[in-house]
Structure formats: structure tokens, C-alpha cells
């Protein structure tokens, strides 16, 4: 299994746990690593995703809400919400991750961990979100969205 895919799976599990219990981030991460092991690069990338996603979830949730027609973030399943949050974090803050990779990884995680319709739902929300980002970038003349 690819290292970054494994890191995303770890991050998803911890983000899901945090969403359910609203506990302390450090406690959740520590508990996870007491019971599971992974290479250091998996731990490092998952930590970036977990901390960044959790610390920025208010802004991320607002962005998701603006692209999820007829869906509030609170109404989404916890799995889908956690996957979307992590993917949006990657899109907004991880310049080393190509946007299409972040989107495809999120869709695959939805198919693996979510419901039968999770992959399509995540795809729809992230496509709308990516289009919005590309529109914003085009107006600012910053980057191309290919």
C-alpha cells in the first residue's frame, strides 16, 4: 500500500474518532499509535493531515457548506464529513499534493469506508469546490486549474 494512502486512512480514522467524541486531539493520536504502528513517513503525513484538518475545521466546514447544495455539514455522515474535511484541507493548504490526487484519494476513501453512495457524494462536493477554487484563482490570475 502506498505510504500517503495509508497516512490518509490513519488520519481518517482519527478524525472520525474526534468527530464522534470531540475529545482531545493529542489523546486520540497517542491512543491510536499505542495500538498500531506505521513507518515514520506515514506517521508524519497523517499528523499533518489530522492537525491541519482539525485545527481549520470551522473554515473548512464553511467552505464545504458553500459547495454542498441542499446539505449541511451536520447532516452528512461522519465518515463522509471527515473525508471531505481532510480533502479540503489538502486542497487549501497542501501545495505539494496535486488537487486531482487529493480529490481521487478522497473518493477512494469514501468507497472504502463510506456507504454505497459516498464516493459519488464526495466526488460531487469536491468537484464543485474545486471549480470554485479555480474560478477564484482565475480571477486572481494566480494558478491554473488543470
Mind explaining what this structure looks like?
The chain starts with a helix and ends in a 6-residue tail after the last helix. It is built from seven helices and no strands. The protein has a single domain, classed as NusB-like (N-utilizing Substance Protein B Homolog, Chain A). The radius of gyration is 15 Å and the shape is globular. Helix 4 packs across helix 5 and helix 5 runs antiparallel to helix 6. By secondary structure, the chain is mainly alpha-helical. The longest helix is centred in the C-terminal third of the chain and has 23 residues, at 118-140.
Could you give me the name of the CATH homologous superfamily? NusB-like
User: How much of the residues is beta strand, in percent?
Assistant: under 5%
> What sequence of helices (H) and strands (E) makes up the elements?
HHHHHHH
Q: What is the level-2 CATH architecture name?
A: Orthogonal Bundle
Q: How many structural units, i.e. domains?
A: 1
Fill in the CATH topology: N-utilizing Substance Protein B Homolog, Chain A
The outline comes out as globular
- In DSSP terms (H or I, runs of 4 or more residues), the helix count works out at 7
- What is the average per-residue confidence, as pLDDT, rounded to a whole number? 90
**CATH class division:** Mainly Alpha
Estimated structural class: mainly alpha
Query: What is the number of strand segments?
Result: 0
Distance from first to last alpha carbon: 27 Å
Largest sheet: none
Rg measurement, Å:
15 Å
Q: Which range best describes the helical content: under 10%, 10-25%, 25-40%, 40-55%, 55-70% or over 70%?
A: over 70%
Uncertain stretches: none
